[in-house]
TrEMBL record:
InterPro entries: Glyco_hydro/deAcase_b/a-brl (IPR011330), NODB_dom (IPR002509), Polysacc_deacetylase_ArnD (IPR050248). It comes from Streptomyces coeruleorubidus. This is Polysaccharide deacetylase family protein. The lineage of its organism: Bacteria, Bacillati, Actinomycetota, Actinomycetes, Kitasatosporales. The keyword Membrane does not apply. It comes from the Bacteria. Residues 63-263 form the NodB homology domain. PANTHER family: GLYCOSYL TRANSFERASE-RELATED, SECRETED PROTEIN.
Amino acid sequence: MITLLRRLAAVCALSTALAACGTGRPPQAAPPVSAPPSRPPTLAPGPAGLTPVFEHGPRTRGRTVALTFDADMTAGQGARAAAGERFDHPRLISTLRALKVPATVFMTGRWAEQYPDQARSIGRDPLFEVANHSYSHYAYTRDCYGLPTVPEGRMRSDVERAYAAFRKAGVTDPMPYFRFPGGCYDRRALKALTPAGVTAVQWDVVGGDAFESDPDVVARQVLDGVRPGSVVVLHCTRSAAPATERAVRAIVPELRREGFRFVKVSELIGTADSRARTRPEAR
């Protein structure tokens, strides 16, 4: 009796399988496994494990150039903003969008707090990437253009506070890149930021737009300095860099005419080799 039942069960199972085949429906595949999101390219730690410093991309891998814009606002400038001074520059961002120019915006946490809607809009636009320019825009060394100084014990927390301000404003994926206020750093600062896991990003072309009112001066300085792989530093603040937007309207078509392609800093870092991408360790 048990043997008969087993045979009947086998026949039923075979019949069910044949019926399924007869439907003409292919067997259902397992749902695809989505790949984990890729991490932004960064540099390996520098000598003695210090924070690596990136200055420009390779000179021999195509005519690429990265325009970067510092969105500066110090921790102590809230009263000036409340009185009407504008540290943002929405017209510049609109021009970059109209010209379809990718760019990296190095933003202070204080700027993101003052202009959260603009920070969120920039951070969620695939044309741009947001990177860290400290929370306070205080210097990480002494004697840096008259800026107040961040104590060594608070350097890392200043960077982390900026990332927290970005997230609060709605910037979901800020880049692991950091620009020292004023570009001033030394070995002590590089060591303090090592646990933060950032790549410090400098530049090889100074736009000279800070407090410059003539866009032709800014445009000429950029055009004369750009080489393949260059990182250009400009500013995204109306009060401190009033000519930048007009200069960009001259810079972009001229560099495109010369065969340059605009990229974000992340692309330059991703294609750089160790000899072209770093500058000597600060002492």
